[in-house]
Amino acid sequence: MAKKIIDSSLDGLSYFERGHIWWKHLGITLFESAEEVDLWIQDENHEGVTDIQRNAYQTYLKNEEQYIKRVPSVMLDYFRWNFEEIFRVVDLDEDHRKDTATENIIRELMTVYYIFICRDGSYGWLISACWNKNDTIAVLLSESEPRVMSHNELRYLHKINDPTLGLFIHDGENSWKGLEQHHFFGELENLEIELEGSSEEGITPVQQKAYAEYTQKKEDLFEAFSKMMLTAYVGDSAQVDEMLASGQPIVVQTVLPKTLYIDKEGNYGWICYTAWNDSYMGVLLSEAQIQFMQPEQLRNYRNEEKVVDEVCGVLFKDATGWSKEVVVRLTEEICTMPVTIRTYGKPVSDKQRASYQKFIELNATRWEGIKDATLDYYMEGYDDFVEYLDLPDSLLRENVTRENVVPGLLDFTQLFIKTNGRIAWLCESPTTDDGLAFEFTNGEIALISQTDIV
Fold this sequence. Notes:
- It is a single chain.
- The chain is α+β, with helices and mostly antiparallel strands.
- It has ten helices and 24 strands.
- The strands form three sheets. An eight-stranded mixed sheet has the order 1-2-3-4-5-6-7-8. An eight-stranded mixed sheet has the order 9-10-11-12-13-14-15-16.
- The mean pLDDT is about 90.
- It starts with a strand and ends in a 5-residue tail after the last strand.
């Protein structure tokens, strides 16, 4: 038989053993939902409802109307901030997109099922939303500003009100998470702050120092980052300098910082959404030069086997040598591309550094050469290709040009630097099983088979 208590301020409550909660049905709905709300009061150790929890419920009741007014705006902000992830897994109507969603639409998409009161008197709602079908979303209401989080983050709430960084909630795994706002590309955007650490460790002085450093430098860092991205688009650093000197503003909105990650050693950087591949990249900010990398390389930066090379930047150990990520413009589109430096366990050589430095200096001029070399290759072998390939209309002899042959024919996979310093773009093509490579070791483009260099 379920345990029950009669509480002077909470009326009748029943104990749900599996959920470790006291609960009752409230017989009310919020946001015109068809579902009625239950009250859940946490009690993992069977100790009964505390005075702190009773007072918390009364505080909730006094402020309920205020929460009803404020939460849709917070949920709309959350929806927009996480839209790229939401859109990956949910087929949304036109009215439910990042730029068209409104508070009224969010009210229709969310249902409050539970008022949850934690053991320490914190409280919030557990909400079902159409874009998160596998789990409920929680909204912490008992702080000065509502905070959206996962169900488990509210249920097993560990929070810190840090004097430097503000309110942080532990995610139940290995991170403390907070929130701030920052102007990126002229828009005020939410930026999640994620600090590595267990719930017992809390926020360390090293992380506080790193955050203070970031705060002091963040405008300069974002300006430098924007310039790097603009250079990737334009392909010519000298031209970018001229554009900036003329007062032309930087607007490269296909990349957006979403999270500031700070590890236990004080290394920090952004995890950015990248619209060109609907994915994410890591941007290390705490080294002397900004470095691109994979998000997990940033999160695990202090444990990665790596070197900081004077020319190539941060390089990570791989099976045949060292690697890194670059952002470049290929086939007229921006992309994130790996750089592989083959050394077989040895340090990067001066020849390899010189090749990479030359690549950086001449990147813009090489792209035009790649177009010419690809068109020449394709037209020379056209009669063979047309026999065994199902060519699109754009690649038929009468339609193909130097502008459309590369995106129609090639899929670039990596920038490769051989042990002797030879350097080439590697790419796949339906015209050959061996793959193609554009070598530019001597400053001239040479289209070769991958087998000739790899």
